[in-house]
Amino acid sequence: MSELFNEDYLVQDASYSKVMNETVLPWLQEKERASVVSGFEGRPLYCVSYSAEKPAATVLIVHGFTENAFKYAELIWSLLHLGFSVIAYDQRGHGRSWRAEGLPTPSVTHVDRFSDYVSDLKCVCDTFLPQATAPFFLFAHSMGGAVASLFMEHYPGVFSAAVLSSPMIAPYIGAVPVFAASALGHFAQFLGKQKKNPFFMKPYSGPEDFDTSCATDPARFAWYDAIKASRTEFQNNVPSYQWSLEALKVTKQILSPGAPEKISCPVILFSADKDFSVLPGPQKEFIKRVPNGHYEFVSGSRHEIFRSVNSVLFPWWHRIISFYNDNISLLKR
């Protein structure tokens, strides 16, 4: 194996951006199959799929709020080299997928109903999984974790194992009471401003600040920050009032009576150490109710565990790969 990568094919070289841009991205582009899938209500979703040389399983990646499939290039590279085919897509309102008309700037991320995300994931599954290599695994981060949780509650049995990384079982809204935040969203609806961003949130204006970011690795942060600055379609960074209102409703939906208990596959929920995007309490409540659920706390991490320093990232990712491989072995018995 090249000295540029560790045993799980994560970048360990100090020149992270150089390795990503000159080695990882060109290789992925050769293997990538890009397509547009018709999502819920016919909305176009940008999807990418990759086939491992000798696939043992398929991993479907569901990204987080204001993200996209491209941001997961390092993890996709690793999965492919370790024998997992990969499916990823930009959720509606994100990246290269459909966005609602009437948004004030490309920075605004909007959704009419959070259930639209779940319906989109169902469309992606129906399109790709019949031709993909079983078993099927999920990797979902943040908002994607909320989407994946609701999906598994409504469609148990589709996936054989799932990893939830800092899932948004409940969003973090600081000192603002939930009722006040909800009232603000409803008032914006009443005024017909549900597609506007909250007045106290500023649209994307250029390179972001590492110190206030969700990453702990400066090199991983800098690589994607430069990509984001160069591509307008990746620059959404604030929610609409409607998105915020829908996010506040998610907790009650995910934790509704009997819902987590319907999830039939093994699930690991990784909770980040210093997380100012989602709340840890509802994560614990959720995973305790999943019949085969496991909770793991990742010390030294922020919200985006996959952009952690090597000493945190490497063991965390190795744990995920081992979890997937263990489930492949169990399914073969």
Written description of the protein model:
- The chain has 333 residues and is α/β, with parallel strands linked by helices.
- It has one domain (16-332): Alpha/Beta hydrolase fold, catalytic domain (Rossmann fold), CATH 3.40.50.
- The chain is 37% helix and 17% strand.
- It has nine helices and ten strands.
- It has helices at 16-31, 73-81, 115-128, 143-154, 178-190, 218-230, 241-254, 280-289, 310-332; strands at 33-38, 44-50, 57-62, 84-89, 108-109, 136-141, 161-165, 238-239, 267-274, 293-302.
- An eight-stranded mixed beta sheet has the order 1-2-4-3-6-7-9-10, with helices on both faces.
- Helix 1 packs across helix 2 (73-81), helix 3 crosses helix 4 (143-154) and helix 5 (178-190) packs across helix 7.
- It is globular.
- The two termini are 31 Å apart.
- The model has no long low-confidence stretch (mean pLDDT 96).
The number of helices is 9
- pLDDT average, as an integer? 96
CA-CA gap between termini: 31 Å
- How many β strands by DSSP? 10
User: CATH-wise, what's the superfamily?
Assistant: Alpha/Beta hydrolase fold, catalytic domain
Rg over CA atoms, rounded to whole Å, is 19 Å
Q: What's the main sheet like?
A: 8 strands, mixed
Spans with pLDDT under 50 lasting ≥5 residues? none
